Amino acid sequence: MGIVQIIVVIAILLLLVKPAGTYLYHVFSNEPNKTDRIFGGVERGIFKLSGLNKREGMSWKTYALSFLSTNIVLVAFGYIVLRLQAGLPLNPNGINQMEQTLTFNTVISFITNTNLQHYSGETGLSYFSQMAVITMLMFTSAASGFSVAVAFVRGITGRATLGNFFEDFVKSIVRVFLPLALIITLVLVGLQVPQTLKPTIQITTMDGQIQQIATGPVASLESIKHLGTNGGGFFGANSAHPFENPSPLTNVIEILSMWTLPAALPYMYGLFAKNKRQGWGIFAAMMTLFVLLLSLNYYAESSGNPAINSMGIDVSQGSMEGKEVRFGIPQSALFTTVTTAATTGSVNNMHDTQTPLGSITPLALMMLNNVFGGKGVGLVNMLMYAILAVFLCGLMVGRTPEFLGRKIEAREMKLIAVAILIHPLIILVPTAASFLTDLGQGAISNPGNHGLTQVLYEYVSSAANNGSGFEGLADNTTFWNMMTGVIMLLGRYVSIIALLAVAGSLLRKQPVPETIGTFRTDNGLFTGILIATVLIIGALTFLPVVVLGPIAEHLTLR
Amino acid sequence: MLNNESNQQSSVSKTSYFISIVRLSAVLIILCGIVYPLASTALAQVFMPSQANGSLLKNSRGEVVGSELIGQSFTDPSLFQGRVSSINYKAEASGSNNYGPSNPDMLQRISDSIAQWKKDNPEVPISQLPVDLITNSGSGLDPHISPAAARVQIPRISNLTGIPADQLEELVVKTTEGRDLGLFGEERVNVLKLNLALSELSKK
């Protein structure tokens, strides 16, 4: 039954990829289409109110600048609201203002689509902050990432320009995220996710104790949290909390909400490239890596924790510490794999409590950061690996590498090298640095090799803009708030800007005609080479630290 | 002179560019951060008030005794017990200790739970004790246990309440929820609902 329900969810996803990808292509190809009639009016209204009347194509620099400036304005607004939330409206539970470094960490976390949370929603945020800051940033950060991905695709497929940032940004919100979020919100409420402005509920339990039950506008956050691959929970326990994720059915809806759009992007890219096989090739590489890592997690969690298995009780359910009975192993393993592949970072079971081998899955997916990936960023990263694969093959046969009919030369490769190397750099260096100081080491809550994994996971999650955590880590301190804040910024903006520059530079090149000697990038051979490149470059970088963390812990478990 | 003019022009257009970004941000903050959640709340409260307000459960006297989604702690041994919760089901917060699989404190906690189980349930061998009953849920608020975890408690409850075991077995079968759509998730028993039904039974 376990494997069957996983296969059914994957099958539903496969059915959704083509319609969703086609819809995204219609939205972003900027050719007149049916969606104009429904949403055109709202967009014109928004542009009129903003005074953005001329929206012509942008150079990569203007595109990047518009993207950055908009993010800065939104982050400033978020910072002010969180610092003043005690006195703002919709604060029925009397939540205090947020501390400075925690606010710094929180606003960066949400604008970078990371959603690492060093606070707990129940005690740290007013309803107004949950709505106007958290929910709002979930829309705008996802739309920012989406826009960048579309611009990158336009660049490498040789469109006239990268497009206009504001046009892409507003379209993502009006035509994709808002309508989908509204529908999913109402479905979730129907399936018992609360949506209210009333304060915490107080009841007397059967046992005669007083129980305070935190509640709030949960469903409207929950839907965009997954659609936008954001992942920050309304409550501390995130999607393990029965109010955020009451049943296996809501679990499947949340999985598909976060997975469908990233999985549809390769198909949209195929349409842009006027060669659907290009898109399917990328998709196949992602799906292969996904299934491999899902199997690892499912196998390890079903087998259970060896240290508990030896105690003589009935362990047929697998590793249940940190998991919910309604989900069991299959729905937990699938959620873990999708949330770290799509860099959402929501959790329906505690990753810190997973078996050592099981926890390699979320770690590996965030280290690779290109298996489906977060809003847009995953596709961009995978295409970056595709260009690298073409380059490596070109070196082997001694030809100038080409990708989609454009020569890949020194400038592009330098920028791609920056984008690839920044990821391990901002993970491994701060992990090592944290072990040199008590400020870092003091946060570790599990002894032994598991402690190393806790620190490593926190930086991998920040750098990949994922946001899940080994939550035992006592990370709400000035040291961790500042460190992870900076890592999230670098993880998001350095690679995005480098890759926009690649797109801008490819756009200026003359297309070279395809000949018999052209290395094809739309067949099974290329998909295989792409997977190998990802594994060799991406995985080998991190193998030593994975051996020190989870693998060593596994070997010591008896 | 010419140079000056074009400089002036570009600084004007830079300012208006920046103002446009601020205006766009303001419009989107209002749309996504205020209009959307409030509209969702209004629709939810009008059309699905019970679900939107926490799915509260009432007992036979009509008093609210909890939410069907949020677990409670049951200290009375003649009632069914739920899972381990490091926050003791205090639902103003959520979460667990996040013990790693090799954490000695967790392994100690489980050994203690097994010893306690032996004392309270001498008639049930520990090889039948399902792991979900002695592990901490992720949320600390898990309202469910597995049907097996309910069944192993029947001998103890039957001894303490005098209700025959086959009646309790029937109760467990009746409250067991199947997989969603017959496929997704696991079979489970809502502990609060089970105990509400049990208290009805013991009144008769």
Secondary structure blueprint with pairings:
The complex is a heterodimer of chains A (558) and B (204).
Chain A: H1 2-28, H2 34-50, H3 60-84, H4 100-111, H5 121-124, H6 127-156, H7 165-190, E1 201-204, E2 210-213, H8 219-227, H9 248-272, H10 276-303, H11 306-309, H12 328-341, H13 356-368, H14 377-397, E3 402-403, E4 406-407, H15 410-435, H16 438-441, H17 449-463, H18 478-507, H19 524-556
Antiparallel strand pairs in A: 1-2, 3-4
Chain B: H1 2-47, H2 49-52, E1 56-58, E2 64-67, H3 104-120, E3 144-145, H4 147-151, H5 154-161, H6 165-175, E4 176-177, E5 188-190, H7 191-203
Antiparallel strand pairs in B: 1-2, 3-5, 4-5
For the residues shown, what is the average pLDDT of chain B? Answer: 93
Q: Which class best fits the helix and strand makeup of chain B?
A: mainly alpha
Which structural category fits the helices and strands of chain A?
A: mainly alpha
How many helices of chain A? 19
Order of helices and strands of chain B: HHEEHEHHHEEH
For the largest sheet of chain A, list the strands in their spatial order: 1-2
Uncertain residue ranges of chain B: none
- Kindly report the oligomeric state of this protein: heterodimer
**Biggest interface: chains and residue counts?**
A-B, 120 and 102 residues
Shape of chain B: elongated
Strands of the largest sheet of chain B, in order across it? Answer: 3-5-4
- Give the overall form of chain A: globular
Strand content of chain A: under 5%
Helix content of chain B: 40-55%
Order of helices and strands of chain A: HHHHHHHEEHHHHHHHEEHHHHH
Could you tell me the radius of gyration of chain B in angstroms?
27 Å
Overall average pLDDT of chain A: 94
Helix percentage range of chain A: 55-70%
Short description:
With 558 residues, chain A is mostly helical. Chain A has helices at residues 2-28, 34-50, 60-84, 100-111, 121-124, 127-156, 165-190, 219-227, 248-272, 276-303, 306-309, 328-341, 356-368, 377-397, 410-435, 438-441, 449-463, 478-507, 524-556, and strands spanning 201-204, 210-213, 402-403, 406-407. Helix content of chain A is 65%, strand content 2%.
